[in-house]
């Protein structure tokens, strides 16, 4: 009865921790947060520009990010990249030249906010630079500008660092074939083409070449000739309640800088600009409208020195009421299930379901990936590709026959993880002080094999003792001399490794036999604060204390963050090392004079921004 009373008291404490604390008031001078995902420590890279996968955000009360520093070998080389003018994060690249060839280096990224605060990412170390034997990357963002009726300028982005030449290919008319028109030296980003025939359409594309092959072609641009194919088509609109309309269209242009959206003023019968969106965008939401009112729209593509004809007109009538969208959408990668978990708030009882959409960080358009029934507040995305950043949004279908506006957008990075760790490592003595039998549970189906580590004595140093192929689950180890030997094992795939299993030793302590492991680990965010409150079942009777461990979700290695007294069954983690918008995993184990228990279950906690 005492045990159950104790549990009720702890759960009451947890509930209070979730709701009884005052909200944190963020300072304008609080630092930003930056996390770098790849390239990672121990990776092999090649000479050239290497895209850095990262996430960065200023503190909620800050003025926004200002710029980034990419630092190689502790300021041996620093590249400064300004924040995009529209407030979005720029693409960052490691620029590795031939002076680093066959050498190892480290790097990190500094984020600077407009109020002068800074943050540094974790250091990625021991990256090896190998010689590139790949074709160059394709040129990007090919743009055509008319100089005169018989001459054009072509401009593109040089996306590679190992090209030998660029090839300009040209097609005359709409039915001709592309032919090699010019070969240009490396690092060229622009050329002119003269002597064109008026009213004849010319199309261009560019590719990079080197001794190892050709890149893909860039996008295609065209002079248009007598008539332009750039006009958007299939313009449609749908009401998102009483005050918003969502417009969608087909992008038929390869050279636009963006699209202009016009709405008809019913009072003056004049067309008025409602908004401008960037290239390759095919949606626009018109806001602040009136309930139950008809509206008319049209769209045109525009670029350097051109604007297409206007699209057909779309007529849409707003609904009579607004219904709130899903609120506080969050996306986090679950290291245990290896899936992205979405959560949101349901702020209405007028929805009939929720539709989830996703895009890659390299895309501008969303695609629907699933739906859930009424009152559901979670969705799990398992159709994932490794080393990608996915963006998500959601909206409700409603009892009134229309969709709500979209929720906020959130993203999750899907890392390339090692296989799942083996477990239940056990030991049996076959010949005293000479031969021990080891066995373990294989929990993964994609490992290349296992690595067995061994050390002599409690204070010895572990070293890799044996490597096994996939699906092996037992081994007999002959030791060279008498003593207490300790063992642990992990699985691997390529250069990715799982966590280690439990530890066993030849004295008979299996790290979870005599010493019972804690169970039923639970946790929650202390309301409004960067703190996590945890409780667990204290099952041991002779422990000397507990260790609490934490890691970033997606990482493979835990770090001990605290050591607690015996009979402890709760803990509050208040940092350092906790950041808004980040996900963390926690676990706990007991210890005594002979070793450690097995770990508790792992829990994941995600802090909102």
Overview of the molecule:
Helix content is 3%, strand content 50%. A hairpin with a 6-residue loop joins strand 20 (258-264) and strand 21. The chain has 609 residues and is an all-beta fold. It has six domains: 33-130, Immunoglobulin-like; 140-222, Immunoglobulin-like; 233-317, Immunoglobulin-like; 327-414, Immunoglobulins (Immunoglobulin-like, Sandwich); 423-505, Immunoglobulin-like (Sandwich), CATH 2.60.40; 519-606, Immunoglobulin-like (Sandwich). The strands form twelve sheets. Strands 2, 4, 5, 7, 8 and 9 form a six-stranded mixed beta sheet that branches. Strands 12, 13, 15, 16 and 17 form a five-stranded antiparallel beta sheet that branches. The longest helix has 18 residues, at 2-19.
- Total domains, how many? 6
The share of residues in extended strands comes to: over 45%
Number of strands: 48
Radius of gyration: 30 Å
Mean of residue pLDDT values? 87
Shape: globular
Unreliable runs:
1-26, 509-513
Largest sheet properties: 6 strands, mixed
Which structural category do the helix and sheet elements fall into?
mainly beta
CATH architecture of the largest domain: Sandwich
Instruction: Tell me the name of the CATH class of the largest domain.
Output: Mainly Beta
CATH topology of the largest domain: Immunoglobulin-like
CATH superfamily of the largest domain: Immunoglobulins
Tally the helices.
Answer: 1
Summed up, what is this model?
This protein has 609 residues and is mainly beta. The model is unreliable at 1-26 and 509-513 (pLDDT under 50).
